[in-house]
Amino acid sequence: MADLQALQNQVYRWAVSNFGANRPAYHPLLGVMEEAGELAHAHLKEEQNIRREEDHVANARDAVGDVVIFLMDYCNLRGWSLEECVMDAWAQVGSRNLRTEKKLSRES
């Protein structure tokens, strides 16, 4: 399995060859939003236990992968490393203990 940066580089080459290098970053951002909607749809239908002829788990997994690929494309267009973004966010989130932190009052 490729590491995230190697995969992001592959996504860059693929996206440039398919869509060109001079695209606005909001194009893949819209793709992220669309795929997040597909993920929510698959999860909802699985939760509701309806449309059983559809493979909701496979659809959800596909949407997760698509979100990451679109995020890599977005990061490429912004000149960012997705891996660095994730690691920076995790450094903040992972250091929190949400069970012991006091909630901020609305007046704060």
**What is the CA-atom radius of gyration, in angstroms?**
18 Å
How would you state the average pLDDT, rounded? Answer: 93
Q: Characterize the biggest β-sheet.
A: none
Helix proportion range: 55-70%
CATH fourth-tier homologous superfamily: MazG-like
Strand percentage: under 5%
| Domain tally | 1
- Tell me what the CATH architecture is: Orthogonal Bundle
CATH level-3 fold name = Helix Hairpins
Number of strands: 0
Q: What multimeric state do the chains show?
A: single chain
Number of helices: 4
Order of helices and strands: HHHH
Q: Overview of this structure, please?
A:
The protein has four helices and no strands. With 108 residues, the protein is an all-alpha fold. The model has no long low-confidence stretch (mean pLDDT 93). The longest helix has 23 residues, at 26-48. It has one domain (4-93): MazG-like (Helix Hairpins, Orthogonal Bundle). Helix 1 crosses helix 3 and helix 2 (26-48) packs antiparallel against helix 3. The radius of gyration is 18 Å and the shape is flat. The chain has helices at residues 4-19, 26-48, 56-78, 82-93.
